Amino acid sequence: MPGGRPLWQRAGKREPEKEVEAQKWIEAVIGEKFPADLPYELALRDGIILCKLMNRLQPGIITKVNVSGGDYKYMDNINQFQNACVKYGVPDVDLFQSTDLWDQKNIALVTQTIFALGRTAYKHPEWRGPFLGPRPAEENRREFSEDVLRAGQAVIGLQAGTNKLASQSGQSFGASRKIILGK
């Protein structure tokens, strides 16, 4: 262990409470508990649970989940999950790299992706199951007439502050400065 800490603790700051929240959401969506004998990151490592999650959110989005066949097949599950996330609407900047999960290099990023998936589920009205994380903000576009826009340009908003009745009279703090000439 170079650096004195296991690899899974080095990259990305893990938040155990977020991992528990993500795990409970996944369990609620897929209707199964994580294996009791495996920690969070190892339960997700083969990609099977992640594929089940995507297929519950959008049935049929992943056509073949590899439940056996070794490392190559399990890595394929992770890749299929990532592709399905993009199709579902998760921004690709929120996706973890396959090695983040497979080699357990950045489990915090894996959890972040799960939260991004949970937020994206809000945008799918067909999904009626549980959600994860806060509802994303929606655009609230407003249209103003030219008259209203012109009138708004003449107003100085109070966010800019006001100087009514502003003066420095009555302010006397600190010692006054003495200037001595001709020394």
Automatic annotation (TrEMBL):
SMART domains per record: CH
Gene Ontology MF terms in the entry: actin filament binding
Entry's family note: Belongs to the calponin family.
Protein name as it appears in the record: Transgelin
Highest taxon in the source lineage: Eukaryota
Pfam family, one: Calponin
Domain spans labelled Calponin-homology (CH): 16-121
Any GO CC annotation of this UniProt entry: actin cytoskeleton
GO BP: actin filament organization
